[in-house]
Specification:
It contains eleven helices and two strands; from the N terminus they run H-H-H-H-H-H-E-E-H-H-H-H-H. It is mainly α and 322 residues long. A two-stranded antiparallel ribbon has the order 1-2.
Length: 322
């Protein structure tokens, strides 16, 4: 896809316009959104992504359209898993519920900016060094194994280097001052509101260490990588409130994501071998990849909800039996 500069500028401008409208609505009335609002906004962002993908199918053909849908679904699924950590961050910093929308939105914008730089660097690297696909593939397989091997561990949030640096360099107040990021108390100080935004933005960048290689395993086009990530992140704020109570019920989500990451890792390695002249290494069509991703996520979601329902019935039945 040799796209002219204006296409990139128009796409980025479109994303910026939608996020600016979103931010205006959040800043105008800071509160926890209702279920109906969350459903509406999530449907809006999902609809935008679907329309964009259909437009790619029409303009660029099923190859690029299929790559976008596979990448977007993968990134969106990995983002759902990230919501567990966002929930921990919110609890750790005791963010007032009426300001959680603003924290998430600005944190996600920071994450999108950093991912853009990460994607640009990754695209340049893979265009110059073909052997990186072996590294990406092996890393994804290792990440999948780690997800399975450590799924029983209790989830924890630990401050990363960027967050520790901000805390050390900038004087910080002990309490929130509304939704303000800084306050003057004898001297200019930052509030915990800014700290938690940095926490969410930089923590998401750590998540990108597996999600970006994963999408490069589905498409080599920087434009598709960027737009798939942008659409996955843009609806994440409303999704946080929409499925917050459902997160604990998705008990097999990590297993499903591990299967997806392992599949993409193996796909990357096989395709790298194929391009290096290994005859027995097949190239996996994007429609097969899309089917595996959708099928795996659908099965793990259904099995998770079935298990959660059975566990809930057991908890209700046990006191009765006693």
């Amino acid at each position: 896809m040799n796209l002219p500069t204006w296409v990139w500028l128009a796409t980025i401008g479109g994303f910026a316009l939608v996020l600016a409208l979103d931010f205006y609505l959040v800043a105008r009335n800071p509160r926890e959104p209702t279920f109906k609002e969350c459903v509406g906004w999530v449907s809006f962002y999902v609809g935008l992504a679907v329309l964009f993908g259909i437009g790619l199918l029409v303009v660029s053909g099923p190859g690029h359209g299929g790559e976008f849908f596979a990448g977007w679904i993968t990134e969106y699924s990995l983002s759902v898993d990230n919501l567990f950590v966002f929930l921990l961050i919110m609890s750790r910093f005791q963010v007032p519920r009426q300001y959680r929308q603003k924290v998430l939105l600005i944190g996600i914008v920071l994450a999108l900016l950093m991912r853009g730089a990460f994607i640009a660097a990754g695209a340049e690297a893979v265009s110059r060094f073909d052997w990186l696909f072996y590294v990406f593939g092996a890393f994804l397989v290792y990440t999948a194994w780690k997800l399975v091997g450590h799924e029983e561990d209790e989830a924890e949030f630990s401050e990363n280097l960027a967050l520790r640096t901000v805390r050390r360099v900038l004087p910080t107040t002990d309490t929130y001052h509304g939704a303000r990021l800084t306050v003057h108390l004898g001297r200019r100080m930052v509030t915990p509101m800014l700290i938690v935004m940095v926490a969410i933005g930089t923590t998401d960048l750590l998540f990108a260490l597996d999600s970006i290689p994963a999408i490069f395993g589905l498409t080599k086009e920087p434009y598709l990588v960027f737009t798939a990530n942008a659409f996955a992140l843009m609806g994440l704020r409303q999704l946080f409130f929409l499925i917050g109570g459902l997160l604990d019920r998705l008990v097999y989500l990590s297993k499903g994501l591990s299967v997806v990451l392992a599949f993409i890792g193996v796909k990357l390695i096989l395709e790298a071998l194929h391009h290096d002249g290994v005859s027995w290494a097949p190239e996996i069509p994007i429609l097969v990849s899309l089917g595996v991703i959708l099928g795996t996520l659908a099965v793990t979601t259904v099995l998770s909800l079935v298990k959660s329902s059975r566990d809930a019935r057991k908890e209700v039945a046990e006191p009765v039996e006693r």
